[in-house]
Write a structure and sequence with these properties.
about 350 residues, alpha/beta, TIM Barrel, globular, 7-stranded mixed sheet
């Protein structure tokens, strides 16, 4: 992202002013510095709950808010405005993190009456973005979930997930985990422009192979599919992922909530000016004439002839490749560690 759009909650905005020294032009041509700054997240909970009928989970854990990968299409960008930051460059460079997330999660899992269901890790921002190399907050979450026998699913664009193969392979042997690698394109140049600091496509495919070699069930998410930009690659992405070891697949149509509509449009005209209008017209065709449709049942798949064709292509390819292998995660192994090394299972917790 090359812009830092205004926070929609701020009353004041700042406009550039030419002081006669041609500084505006020089600054516009210079690449923006991208040092990452970290701020502690003061929230006192680890689990975020949702009631969306479009999601396959009702709870998630996100160690970080903001993401260094810089994906131009990221639907989580507008959420950064709630922190007082811009959904643009601030989202990529001003991160918040929860240093006590493991302790917070353990406290919530110990609550009387807690009923285990799979936790989604990485539903908002990537749990394996570069800062994880030093903070290791995602690993601390995995350690808690392993001790409690709690199921989870992981979504990432990073080969960094392989660093936790030791924990993930043990959990996989108990039917407690599955990992999804998001692969949006096999075109290295498009990936560089669209996802500038995420792992390149070949590294993500290699990560699928590494997970498969460690007997960790892994799937591919062809997400997002952008009409007229990367959707022609759908079958190639699914085939490459199957060959790399993926056993399941999913896809999501591009979503452009709030500020993301203007940000993506600007990026598109900047990087692909000749086809920008065509891409935007196709998006509108799948979104009832707009650039976004937030209605349940429509936001992930879209509507209309173009969206239906994409859905049919996906279904046909998945059948042909044998990628329709949804995995049920075990909830029956959940048990709360207590003093002396004993465990209290979910049924016993309901008695307290």
């Amino acid at each position: 992202m090359s812009t830092n759009s205004a926070n929609r909650f701020e009353r004041l905005t700042v406009a550039p002013f030419d002081d006669g020294w041609a500084s505006i032009e020089a600054e516009s041509l210079a690449p923006p510095p991208l040092p990452t700054t970290l701020a502690r997240d003061a929230s006192r909970s680890a689990i975020a709950w949702n009631q969306s009928p479009d999601l396959g989970f009702d709870r998630a854990v996100n160690p970080y808010r903001g993401c260094e990968h810089g994906c131009v299409y990221c639907y989580a960008r507008p959420s950064h405005a709630y922190l007082g930051y811009s959904p643009g460059l601030d989202f990529e460079t001003k991160l918040t993190y929860k240093p006590e997330i493991a302790a917070l999660l353990e406290r919530e899992l110990r609550r009387p009456g807690y009923v285990p269901q799979p936790i989604a890790l990485g539903s908002n921002t990537d749990p394996y973005q570069p800062v994880e190399r030093t903070l290791a907050l995602t690993r601390s979450v995995l350690e808690v979930l392993e001790r409690f026998g709690h199921p989870l699913s992981i979504v990432t664009k990073s080969a960094g997930v392989l660093r936790d193969r030791d924990i993930l392979s043990r959990m996989a042997a108990r039917g407690l985990v599955r990992v999804w690698l998001s692969v949006t394109t096999l075109d290295a140049e498009l990936a560089r422009r669209m996802e500038p600091r995420a792992a390149n496509p070949q590294r993500r495919l290699a990560a699928l192979t590494g997970l498969a070699d460690a007997a960790i069930p892994a799937g591919v998410l062809a997400a997002p599919m952008i009409p007229g930009l990367n959707d022609s690659e759908l079958e190639r992405i699914l085939t490459a992922a199957r060959d790399a070891g993926a056993t399941d697949a999913g896809y999501v149509l591009l979503r452009l909530p709030l500020e993301l509509r203007e940000m993506f449009t600007t990026w598109l005209h900047q990087h692909y000016p000749r086809r920008a209008q065509h891409v935007l017209n196709l998006i509108r065709e799948t979104r009832a004439g707009g650039l976004n449709d937030s209605r349940f049942g429509h936001r992930f798949r879209g509507q209309g002839v173009y969206a239906d064709m994409l859905s049919q292509r996906f279904a046909r390819c998945v059948r042909a490749l044998g990628l329709a292998n949804p995995m049920s995660l075990s909830t029956g192994q959940f048990a709360v560690p207590v003093a002396g090394g004993k465990l209290v299972n979910a049924a016993q917790m309901l008695l307290f």
